[in-house]
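Objective 1.3, modelling of assemblies. Example input:
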Amino acid sequence: MTTTTAGKTTTARATPAAKSPASASRLASSIKFKTFAVAFGIVFPVMYVACEWWNLPLFTFHPATNRVDFWWAAGRSGEGPAMYWYGWTVTSLLVGLVVGGLATLLPESVTRKLPLFLVWLLPVLGFIPLAYSLMPFWTK
Amino acid sequence: MLISVTTFWTILLIIHGLLAIALLGALTHQAMSVLLPVRQAAGPAGFVTRFRAVQGAGYATAICLLWILTFLMGAWIYVKYRIYIRIPIEQAGFWKTQGFFELKEHAASLGLGLLPIYWYMWKNAQNPDYDGARKSVTVLLAFICWFNFLVGHVLNNVRGFGS
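Predicted structure (tokens):
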């Protein structure tokens, strides 16, 4: 991809950081990290939507009292609302980290087949059930 | 106490907003560079040409760090938002406004899950195998960032900290 800046032609892909193996970090050139990142990118949105849909927070936070309950807990009478978003996000992160880590143990012939397009398609599709679950807000 | 509680949370909100603006600028430059790449010399470069002629790979690490910092600041002020902002918004009947905030929190989390592969693909931008996915992920992150920024801005207009 060739770019032009003020009449000067450069190659956008071949940036110094991307071109030079010496300046690229070991992480960026690691096939295992790529496997982890793809698996994490696929698992995270699926887990997040599942956590929100079936209400599976790792913990529940009660902001009025700063109390934390493990797993799901209803808001207590007189103690304000309960918050689940922190718990959904942490659950998704942990499952993503574990599955991503396990994926790095698989042979490269298997991990190479992980479809890369899912890392952007799944989050896009995830917005459909997430927006649908907010129907009470849209219809009131 | 040097400052009031309200001032403290307002300062945190402003920091959250400033981080979001930095993230918005970086992601918009990067998204434009992949959506409308400048391909050939055609006379002197104008503002739009220079805007989209950035080298996207150099933004990747900064964007990841900014997303995480903005996310953490947002998660922090969300504690106060839940009680001092959301409840009055619900009492006033601004249900759709609150619905968009709920969507904003989901979008921020989904964006967080994209960061490892986004970073990897930009750090390997010379590999054409990643071009399509890298473009899609970058545009998606930019869209989420704009959406979240605008929703946050409107919410602050509806009821900010200290109002």
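Residues 60-91 of chain B form the longest helix (32 residues).
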